[in-house]
Known about the structure:
By secondary structure, the chain is an alpha+beta fold.
Amino acid sequence: MDEFIDSTNYQLRIMKYEKPKTNDSTPALAAHCDTNTMTLLYQNEVNGLQIQSIDGEWINMKPSPNSFIVLIGESLSISSTYFLHHKVWLNGRLPSPFHRVMMKGNEDRYSLGLFTRPKGGYVIKVPNELVDDNNPILFKPHDHEEFLKFFYSENTQAAVQSEGYITRLKAYCNV
């Protein structure tokens, strides 16, 4: 755990989603999985966060006023499609949620996000304790910063446009 904490950068972000000025549900943030390690979210009373279930249904998140939402990011757990999950650091144990923000009405939505991600040069690898005959290693060790360069490259983005949502990490360091 100490290695994990020492290898992590943190970013605190305040996010404002403008009121859509309509009562129709409008996308405020496109559907995605976070590329980081983990996200802690706190929001005002204006809901809008939706998480996609394994069967493809969008679920409205309505947290209590004094709670945080924890989202596992792709560097901890990689999603390959909406329904099929492959995970890196936890070697297939937990999924990264596909999520979006949908808004309607006449109120702005504010949220506070604490994003964690591996520091450049830190090699993400599955701990030996999580690999056995029933759980073979799924991904080669990799530097998250190098993966992000690949993730945002023109060739990778072009593949996403032509093939839909693909597993970029799987293409980058699959075993």
